[in-house]
């Protein structure tokens, strides 16, 4: 996804100090590490993004690493370990909700 896909010229968010933004991002990631019950498929179904998206976004923002190290950073452990411990099988309803939600991410 284009890193500027959701950019809004003149958005006050762009005036947020980088240190404050970084602190908020770290808090979000730590919150998601704690809330293993919040499945990625459910996050995708509700908000159109998940932990893996965050990993992609940090790579797009300049993280010096491939996909797996970025995901491990976000998950707090190797992706395979996280999946083994916490990920459940997605239901057809979860997949449908995810697809409908992700479709809303498309920019005109």
Could you characterize what this model shows?
The protein is an all-alpha fold and 108 residues long. It has one domain: SMc04008-like fold. It is built from 6 helices and no strands. The protein has helices at residues 18-34, 40-47, 51-60, 67-75, 79-86, 92-103. α2 (40-47) packs across α6 and α3 crosses α4. The longest helix has 17 residues, at 18-34. The two termini are 13 Å apart.
List the helices and strands and how they pair.
Blueprint: H1 18-34, H2 40-47, H3 51-60, H4 67-75, H5 79-86, H6 92-103
Helix pairs in contact: 2-6, 3-4
Give short descriptive properties of this protein.
SMc04008-like fold; mainly alpha; 59% helix; 108 residues; 6 helices
Query: What Rg, in angstroms, do the CA atoms define?
Result: 15 Å
How many structural domains are formed by the residues?
A: 1
Tell me the CATH superfamily: SMc04008-like
Structural class: mainly alpha
Largest sheet: none
Ends: how far apart? Answer: 13 Å
Query: Got a strand count?
Result: 0
Mean pLDDT: 91
The global form is: globular
Order of helices and strands: HHHHHH
Tell me the strand percentage band.
under 5%
Percent helix: 55-70%
Mind telling me which CATH architecture this is? Orthogonal Bundle
- CATH classification, class level: Mainly Alpha
Summarize it.
By secondary structure, the protein is mainly α.
């Amino acid at each position: 996804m284009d890193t500027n896909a959701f950019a809004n010229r003149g958005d006050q968010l762009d005036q947020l100090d980088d240190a404050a933004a970084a602190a908020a991002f770290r808090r979000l990631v730590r919150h998601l590490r704690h809330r293993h019950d919040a499945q990625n498929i459910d996050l995708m179904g509700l908000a159109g993004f998940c932990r893996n998206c965050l990993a992609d976004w940090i790579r797009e923002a300049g993280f010096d690493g491939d996909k797996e190290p970025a995901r491990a950073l976000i998950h707090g452990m190797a992706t395979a370990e996280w999946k083994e411990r916490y990920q459940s099988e997605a239901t057809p309803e979860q997949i449908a909700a995810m697809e409908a939600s992700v479709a809303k991410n498309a920019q005109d």
